[in-house]
Amino acid sequence: MTNWDETNRPNKAKVRRFAVENYTPRQHAILFLPSRELRDVKLALEEGSISTSQHIIFVEKTQEDANIIHTELRARGFTSIYSHIGQLCDLPLDRALKGKKLGYAFFDTCGQLTVDIATWLACIPKECIAENADFHFTFAIPRDSVISVWPQIAYDHMLDGVNCNLPFSPLSDNNHNPETLYENLQLYYVILKNSLGNFTTKRRRSLPYRDTRTWMFYYHIQLNHKSMHSRFRKLFAAVKEYNDSTIRADARTSFSPDCNKDPIMVEAGKKAWATRRQNALKEKL
Question: How many whole angstroms separate alpha carbon 135 and alpha carbon 64?
Fold first, then answer.
């Protein structure tokens, strides 16, 4: 199927094909974040990777787009559909599955791997996931570093026991810093693997790609029911509290009547707040 992406975003089109290839339809549920164009679903149907007899779950932010998607899915032959209006991290997966198990998911987030998404993944019950389920993810890379979103101390806790020796074959031109890009690929993988700690995971593919100025990461991970660990829910909660306090502190600084009068004092105040937040995070871990 030739579509808009193959001309305008060729690397995204390649990633989409990676996400649907070599998957045989089973009578398990499938999950997409499709957008109103349904490019992922259309390609998966054309490749024979999914079947209209499967129960399909989709997540969409707006009611208008959700209605369009639902109508198109019906027109293509799907009869068992669950639509969730909102964010992925708000999806009640156990209810959405309607007694089925999730066997395939393409989490084409187009955004960063946030603490909310990591927490949602960490809370997925084992009984909701089929054995050897295939999960595909795309995430945007923060402009500076993943560490700016996830504090270094939290990342250090998650690093233990994770093999970060990942293949590195970017889909794009050579206009990038390979060391920084590879470091961020590893950082996201460590966070993602620990988010899925209720399961043993096997990485099938991981690579950076981009068609615009923003770098993206693609990961294909297979899950089985043998637990790796589940100790990071507490850590994710602590990181969320840390990030929330950072936002509050920045807001207080921005609206302070003295913020433009004494920049040295403001900078010292920011450093003091950062130290206090780091210490508070250490106490929780």
Answer: 27
pLDDT at 48 over 50: yes
If you classify domain 4-229 with CATH, what class do you get? alpha beta
Q: Mind listing the pLDDT tens digit for each residue in 61-105?
A: 999 999 999 999 999 999 999 999 999 999 999 999 999 999 999
Work out whether the CA dihedral 174, 180, 184, 190 comes out positive or negative.
positive
Give how far Cα 145 sits from Cα of 5, 10, 151, 282, Å.
Answer: 27, 25, 10, 21
Q: How far apart are CA 50 and CA 225, in angstroms?
A: 23
Q: How many Cα atoms within 13 Å fall on the side-chain side of residue 121?
A: 25
Q: Which 3 state secondary structure label does DSSP give 253?
A: helix
Q: What is the helix (H) or strand (E) element at residue 237, kind and residue range?
A: helix 232-254
**How far is 19 from 117, CA to CA, in rounded Å?**
20
Distance from C-alpha of 14 to C-alpha of 20, rounded to nearest angstrom: 10
Find the mean pLDDT for residues 247-259: 47
CA dihedral 46, 50, 52, 58 (to 10 degrees): -110
> Measured between alpha carbons, how far is 232 from 280 in angstroms, rounded to an integer?
17
Q: What is the rounded distance in angstroms from the CA atom of residue 136 to the CA atom of residue 16?
A: 10
- Average pLDDT of the segment spanning 148-163: 54
Amino acid symbol at 198: N
